[in-house]
Amino acid sequence: MMRKINLANKVTIFRIVAIVPFMFFLFFGGRVGRVLSLLIFIVASFSDWLDGWLARKMNEVSNLGKIIDPVADKILVYSALICFVYLHLIPLWMVIILMGRDFLVMALRIQLAYHKVVLAANFVAKGKTGAEYSAILLIFASLLWGEKPIQVILSNIAWASLSIAVLLAVISGIQYALKGKEYLR
Length: 185
Hints:
The chain folds into two domains: 88 residues, no CATH class; 96 residues, no CATH class. It has seven helices and no strands. α1 packs antiparallel against α3 and α6 packs antiparallel against α7. The model has no long low-confidence stretch (mean pLDDT 91). The chain is mainly alpha-helical and 185 residues long.
């Protein structure tokens, strides 16, 4: 029997679906399209908080939500970062490090879940996520800013934020690996 999808999971699914117009407007529509793309990204990012709040508030925390929520977050962030690589705004190697770390941590979490162990996000990992979102918003700001000197400053700050995300990805990846090894003994 098919179960009804709860509201929190519908919000999570919205975040995945929102990637299509996000990417469309980023590449087509010029400046107005980029503003719309930024707004879609902000709304989709906010939906990450909203789906968790709804699940807890309505007492509808589900296994489906536990699986698709972090996947939706990664799809949103990596869609933006890959688009920025395509636009020659950031280097591919940084995105590969971030994605590689996330895939390895996801694989570790799956392995630990098989042993009934939950590997919670740590402070460094949350910092990585914050730095990723900051970098994305700063890249958008540099795309939309008209004056060249400020645009360059915003680009440099975005690069620094993404560099911090990469550094924190490596550190937290090592932390997760050590913690996972400890649990799997």
